[in-house]
Amino acid sequence: MSGHPKERIRNVPPPPGGGKGAHAYTRFIPREELSGFAAWKPGSLGGEEEAAAAAAAAEPPKSAEELQAEALRAARQGGYHDGYRDGLAALDSFKQSFAQQATAQMGALMQSYAGQMDALQQQMASALADAAVSLARQVVRGELAANPQQVAAVAQEAIEALLLSARHVTVRVHPDDQPLVAQGAAEILEARGARLVADAAVTRGGCVVESDIGIIDASIESRWRRAAAALGSQSPWNEESGA
Q1: Radius of gyration in angstroms for the set of CA atoms belonging to the chain, rounded to a whole number
Q2: Cα 180 from Cα 162, distance rounded (Å)
Q3: What DSSP state is assigned to residue 194?
Q4: Does residue 57 contact residue 36 with C-beta atoms inside 8 Å?
Q5: What is the Cβ-side half-sphere exposure of residue 151, based on CA atoms within 13 angstroms?
Q6: In 10 A of CB 221, how many CB atoms?
Q7: d(CA 155, CA 169)
């Protein structure tokens, strides 16, 4: 047979008997009409891998614009991942910094609050002591006015506090308290040979005992200072009018 390969078509007469599966002709495909082919290997009936490789080999080369677009997409994707990673790192750093600042501020606030509470407690304690002292002052004054004869017991305790060796004992009291002391403490005054003297400088309710070995201050002011100090106050007896 002769002729161009594309024209090599041989007519085959139908088989005898005219079977249904018979073909009118058989055409051989020339090599020039094949776009791609691969050798068949035993055991690979499907040929998917070979077909994929053949298809990839048959794909036309990509243009510069396509390569540039793919590079740009890859760069964007990489930049997105890098930015996301850096953002998470920055967020963690911010959380740590914020926690440290919040802890420091909370500590300073609690310390300031503790200092303010201490100052407030001190103020409250001082105010309470002043209130107690003021109330006690009123009670003592009321008691002295109601029972002025108590000054005799005060004078007797002051004289008994002196040593037995003391001489030249003098008891100074307010002029209004002198008859009360002379009557209520007459026995001890006589036993110690003490002299009772009226002194307007001595506040009612108190006395001052003098001797050759010392002085015992049993004035109302001195006794009041000791009582107020025990309550945590320095309020004097004559702070209010009417002393």
Answers
A1: 61
A2: 21
A3: -
A4: yes
A5: 30
A6: 15
A7: 12
